[in-house]
Amino acid sequence: MSRLIFEKSRPGTVGYRYPNCDVPYCDSKELFKQNLIRREPARLPEMGENEVIRHFTELSRRNFGIDLGFYPLGSCTMKYNPRINEKSAGLDGFNALHPLQPDEQSQGTLEMMYDLIASLSEVTGMKWGTLAPFAGAHGEFTGMKLFKAYFRARGEMGRTKILMPDSAHGTNPASAHIAGFDIVEIKSDSRGHVDPSVVREYCDETLAGIMMTNPNTLGIFEKEIMEIAGMIHEAGGLLYYDGANMNAIMGKVMPGKMGFDCVHLNLHKTFSTPHGGGGPGAGPVFVNEKLIEFLPTPVVEKEGELYINSFNHSLSIGRVGGFHGNIGVLIRAMTYILINGEDGLTDVSEFAVLNANYLREKLKDFYDLPYDEVCKHEFVLSAKSLKENYGISALDIAKGLLDKNIHPPTIYFPLIVEEALMIEPTETETRETLDGFVEVMISLAKIASSDPDSLHMAPVNALVGRVDEVLAARKPVVNYFNAEEER
Fold it and tell me: Domain count of the chain?
């Protein structure tokens, strides 16, 4: 498609035309409503290039990222993204392709998408999938829409209940609720597991299914998953797998073999792509034979030697996003898969589990460990005793880590653990980095007993000190101009 360009058509006006064509100019006064046309110059600062460069360079120094130091953010999986991923995504054949170009002119990208779906279907034990969802939560919502379509096609719209472990990611109940389901919370047992006997109580004709993460957000593998899957299926329900923790089991066990019918993957967590946070993201969804006919369109398929975007699916839930997903992120994931291969992807999970258990053993004598068993890729400590004995909370420990140039772990999640410190080292960190983290964590626990007031003041070395969280919650500064007025 041609690119709309701006060009002066006559003095004092701005006109619009397409290059290399005879479309006549259009005066801006005719194109826009009068109340939308600026009558005064914009209030933009007048700065030289060097001032602008210094400003943004200074801002960049205030950021902390995986390129600068250890980032043990439990559940969020801040692993290193190899630079070759960026190089692949930047190839002209990918980033210069227009999403509306016909399939015949898009064979390279379509082949990449087809191969990625095939690879991730194999990893998850599913039949086929869609790359369209733009985030993990978007993938969850897509999966719940697939559940809806499945029951609608079967005339079972009375199935409205989705079972939800109390350790679930917060987006799980939100996604199911927005899709029109009723949420039933399932309490964890003393081991941090989903109790099959509690699940059985809800296995009736109103059950739509269950959403689970395995291993769960405590980093514990749900050993009774096959029993739970059998009960859900016997009752006519479906199982949804939140693939956020796939980093722990990739190459070892497939969700499909556990009995799950639908899976979403957070590509940033397992396949080393950038995070979301308002920016790039991807949450592709994969399904078994039960749900394949309901997949969003277009479905990437192969006809002979031609890769196509197929819309010929009468039971499809339709589009779930513009165009074909976040292609740049998908290319990065495909690159990671090709570099590692089958054995390498298995190594990823093995090292993630090894690193997490190494830290768990090193730290469990200095912090509370609510669930003392072999973990997978992450584990949860607690600062409950530190708070009871010395008044030092999980937040204080997190602030203390900032002074040591270490990003804090996730705190106060999962909600079922008081003063939670959720730690995930990922597979990309060295033994030396892990030992340095252990040393700092132990030193903070000792400071909590000897000099607790100093931790209440932390961080003191960071560019931004301890904020007044109560004031921030009650009177948030939401824009630049308000901030200037506050100063």
Answer: 3
Question: Distance (Å, rounded) from C-alpha 114 to C-alpha 120?
Answer: 10
Cβ contact 307:156 at 8 Å = no
Are 18 and 125 found together in one domain? no
Domain carrying residue 13: 5-36
Residue ending a domain, choose from 320, 339, 358: 339
Q: Give yes or no: residues 97 and 197 share one domain.
A: yes
Tell me if 185 sits within 8 A of 199, measured CB to CB: no
* One-character DSSP codes across 340-378: HHHHHHHHHHHHHHHHHHHHHHHHTTTSB-SS-S--SS-
Contact 272, 80 (CB under 8 A): yes
Q: Do 264 and 388 have their domain in common?
A: no
Whether 124 maps to a domain, the answer reads: yes
- Same domain for 295 and 165: yes
Cβ count within 10 A of residue 287? 27
Alpha carbons 437 and 431: distance in angstroms, whole number: 10
Averaged pLDDT, 198-215: 97
- Specify whether 276 is located in the same domain as 400: no
How does DSSP assign 242-263, residue by residue?
EETTGGGTTTT--HHHHT-SEE
Kindly write down the DSSP assignment for every residue of 58-120, as one continuous string.
HHHHT---TTTS---BTTT------HHHHHHHT-HHHHT--TTS-GGG-HHHHHHHHHHHHHH
Give yes or no: residues 130 and 254 share one domain: yes
Could you tell me which residue, 467 or 86, shows the higher pLDDT? 86
pLDDT by residue (tens digit) across 47-58? 899 999 999 998
399 and 280 within one domain: no
* Torsion over CA: 331, 335, 336, 341 (sign): positive
| pTM, two decimal places | 0.86
459 neighbors 404 (Cβ within 8 angstroms): no
Q: Quote the CA–CA distance of 445 and 438 in Å, as a whole number.
A: 11
DSSP collapsed to 3 states, 426-486: CCCCCHHHHHHHHHHHHHHHHHHHHCHHHHHHCCCCCCCCCCCHHHHHHCCCCCHHHHHHH
Query: In which band, very low, low, confident or very high, does the pLDDT at 116 lie, cut at 50, 70 and 90?
Result: very high
CA-based diameter of the chain, in Å?
Answer: 80
Only one residue has tokens 């909590």, namely 448
Instruction: Find where tokens 């008081």 sit.
Output: 418
Q: Tell me the CB-side half-sphere exposure of residue 316, using CA atoms within 13 A.
A: 15
At residue 9 the predicted structure's pLDDT band, cuts being 50, 70 and 90, is very low
CATH code, domain carrying 141:
3.40.640.10
Q: Is residue 202 part of a domain?
A: yes
Residues 358 and 286 in one domain: no
Over residues 265-319, the pLDDT tens digits come to 999 999 999 886 555 689 999 999 999 999 999 999 999 999 999 999 999 999 9
CB 124 within 8 A of CB 255: yes
Q: What percent of the chain has pLDDT over 90?
A: 78
